[in-house]
Amino acid sequence: MAKKPKKQQGGTPATVALTAAGTAFTVHAYEHDPASPSYGDEAAQALGVSPERVFKTLVADVDGELTIAVVPVAGQLDLKALATAVGGKRATMADPAAAERTTGYVRGGISPLGQRKRLRTVLDASASGHPTICISAGRRGLEVELDPSDLATLTDAVLAPIGRL
After folding, report:
1. 149 in Cβ contact with 131 (< 8 Å)
2. Less Cβ crowding at N or C end of the chain, within 10 Å?
3. Rounded Cα distance, 103 and 109, in Å
4. Residue 37 pLDDT
5. Could you tell me which residues are beta bridge partners of residue 68?
6. C-alpha to C-alpha distance for 25 and 145, rounded to whole angstroms
């Protein structure tokens, strides 16, 4: 009988999912400032990492279905490109309350991993140009650094050019 992986002490659903999958990752914690206007820019600056390597997780509504978009904090999500990437017609940003309820995370701490309800995921194609990227670990002030191909595999993500600078 296989043993269930133990939940990490102080882990988030994202880090627990990474550990359970046997994926290599590094956790980076920093002091989150609640007054910060941009969670992603704050993370990049606090970690000393280029904003092109720190990716934000956004929840969009594509033709009535919540969809995860993972794009660099240095740019913005192209909603039309996101809809096209998943074969949809129209995409809008999801209602923040619906995003939090569905993922199980709070805004500014939504991770593409370990969500309450697994959502279709699109990862910006620029991620593949980096050996590692940073994404939210599921809590404000906590990031995980991992190989973008591991993130794509774990989330069954489609890689597409959905970000714009």
Report:
1. no
2. N
3. 10
4. 83
5. 59, 121
6. 6
- What pLDDT, in 10s, does the model give residues 39-82? 888 999 999 999 999 999 999 999 999 999 999 999 999 999 99
Would you state the torsion angle of the CA atoms of residues 80, 107, 55, 94, taken in this order, to the nearest 10 degrees?
Answer: -10
- Other beta carbons within 10 angstroms of residue 109's beta carbon come to 20
Report how far apart the first and last C-alpha atoms of the chain are (Å, whole number).
Answer: 50
Placement of tokens 């904003």 in the chain: 51
Residue 99 in contact with residue 85, Cβ under 8 Å? no
Residues in CB range of 56: below 8 A, 6 or more apart: 39, 40, 70, 71, 72, 73, 136
pLDDT of residue 41: 87
Report which DSSP code applies to 90. -
- Residue that has been written with the tokens 């805004």 in this structure: 107
Q: What digits encode the pLDDT tens for the residues 6-35? A: 334 458 999 999 999 999 999 999 998 888
Q: How far apart are CA 150 and CA 135, in angstroms?
A: 12
Distance CA 102, CA 114 (A): 11
The CB-side HSE value for 51 (13 A sphere, CA atoms) comes to: 12
